[in-house]
Amino acid sequence: MARVYNFSAGPSMLPEAVLKTAADEMLDYQGSGQSVMEMSHRSKTYDKIIKDAEALLREIMNIPDNYKVMFLQGGGSTQFAMVALNFMNKNNKADYIITGQWAKKAYKEAARYGDAKAVASSEDKTFSYIPKTDKSMFREDADYVYICMNNTIYGTVYHELPDTGDIPLIADISSCILSEPIDVTKFGALFAGAQKNMAPAGLTIAIVREDLIGNAMDICPTMLNYKTHADADSLFNTPPCYTIYIAKLVLEWIKNEVGGLDKMKELNEKKAKLLYDFLDNSELFKGTVVPEDRSLMNVPFVTGNADLDAKFVKEATAAGLVNIKGHRTVGGMRASIYNAMPYEGVVALVDFMKKFEAENK
Ligand code: PMP
């Protein structure tokens, strides 16, 4: 069996130990005589799985009791509508910082339901930096301020959060959840599609401060109302059962094998440093993001020559370094080095880049 190093932006690699456990438990989950795939979501056995997953997430992310954790479906994209329908509820106003396509999509969705304002943007330089903001840029009567914390396509991240004063900060953390500790108390709500750092596709996590739940717009569909899911402990309808089970295994891996999010951050920094240091010293490859806003998870880079980029992607793929092509809107390359990418994978990539550089000078 030859497993590749998969640099995909998502769905992406899962820890090998998790895949092995899932394989071992596939036909008979812990003596139940059935796969988790086949199990009723109302069964006692499954109830323990979903409760354990929530408890582990709360413990690992240090989520305070006054925040609800919800296991939802619909991906990050459905959250764009849910955020607006649930939180644009006092003055029907929300301020958005546009740091890339995902933030822009969220903003456009909110504009369908109320007065959404783009208060800052980094589009002038192809989203290669995080725009500076200060409190005075936000409307005092905005119901919330929205950011996309880690910009998967462009490779930027908020190392420092915007100061929004008393206005709740809402963040899309799809591509950085569980990559390092986050102070949940700084946010009104957080959400993430699970298919990058947590589980296969199909699961979306929402973490919402309790006082923000229960005031959705009248037009909000039942399934898009956080209250529906918060009140039912994520069992209002059939949840993505198997994906939640894999998320539980990943959370156990982070807790027991890695040793928590401080350790996870250390490992991620070590991987990212190896790649960024190489890019900073290369005569062929160049990172596209300003150093102070670089993501630990997604590292876009270019040679400056589209033909050479294509050659690199092709040869890297043949060498077992797959899905390294940049997003179709940006071109070049992008290495997504999420939690489950081993250090050896980044070493293999950098070695390959060195060789390619020597051969294509
Ligand atoms: N937000 C971010 C930061 C993303 O990277 C993505 C997908 N790559 C999305 C939202 C959209 O997620 P989904 O495909 O789950 O709707």
Describe this entry's structure for a reader:
With 361 residues, this protein is α/β, with parallel strands linked by helices. It folds into two domains: 5-14 and 260-359, Alpha-Beta Complex (Aspartate Aminotransferase, domain 1); 17-257, Aspartate Aminotransferase, domain 2 (3-Layer(aba) Sandwich), CATH 3.40.640.10. Helix content is 35%, strand content 16%. The chain has nine helices and 14 strands. The chain has helices spanning 16-24, 44-61, 75-87, 101-111, 226-231, 241-258, 261-281, 306-318, 343-359; strands spanning 5-6, 67-72, 93-98, 115-121, 144-148, 150-151, 156-157, 169-172, 189-193, 204-209, 286-287, 298-302, 321-322, 333-336. The chain has a seven-stranded mixed β-sheet with strand order 2-10-9-8-5-3-4. A three-stranded antiparallel β-sheet has the order 11-12-14. The chain has a two-stranded parallel ribbon with strand order 1-13. Helix 7 runs parallel beside helix 9. The longest helix has 21 residues, at 261-281. The two termini are 35 Å apart. The structure holds 4'-deoxy-4'-aminopyridoxal-5'-phosphate. 4'-deoxy-4'-aminopyridoxal-5'-phosphate binds at residues 9-10, 75-77, 102, 148, 152, 172, 174-175, 193.
Briefly characterize the structure.
The protein has about 350 residues and is α/β, with parallel strands linked by helices.
Bound compounds:
4'-deoxy-4'-aminopyridoxal-5'-phosphate
Strand content: 15-25%
Number of strands: 14
CATH H-level superfamily of the largest domain: Type I PLP-dependent aspartate aminotransferase-like (Major domain)
Q: From N to C, what is the helix and strand string?
A: EHHEHEHEEEEEEEHHHEEHEEH
Content-based structural category:
alpha/beta
Helix content: 25-40%
Round the mean pLDDT to the nearest integer and report it.
97
Tell me what the CATH architecture of the largest domain is. Answer: 3-Layer(aba) Sandwich
- Placed side by side, the strands forming the largest sheet appear as 2-10-9-8-5-3-4
Number of domains: 2
Model regions low in confidence, pLDDT < 50 over at least 5 residues? none
